[in-house]
Design brief:
Number of domains: 1
Distance between the termini: 59 Å
Number of helices: 6
Number of strands: 0
Structural class: mainly alpha
Order of helices and strands: HHHHHH
Largest sheet: none
Radius of gyration: 17 Å
Strand content: under 5%
Length: about 100
Amino acid sequence: MQTTYPLRVQAIRSKGQKPRLYVSFPLALAVAIGFKTRWSAIPPLVTMLVAAFIVHAGDGWGKQEFPILYACGFLTLVFTDGGRYAVDTWLKKRRR
């Protein structure tokens, strides 16, 4: 049984290999260090919502719990920004 992937994932997939999403790691790193936190948290938020409500829709609460929990964290970062120790805050202070 062959799995089909959305067009964008197929475009970066080599023959015979699993798809690689090159965006996940850099955005997670940007969120972790606080660089453009609000914008960097949106794609992981969408990914977690898709994982919870589309991929694990029929699996029950046990499989949906962690993606929903992570989505809440990313949603919080979208609205509140990185905070005192974020790289963005350091860059703003440096410009002054």
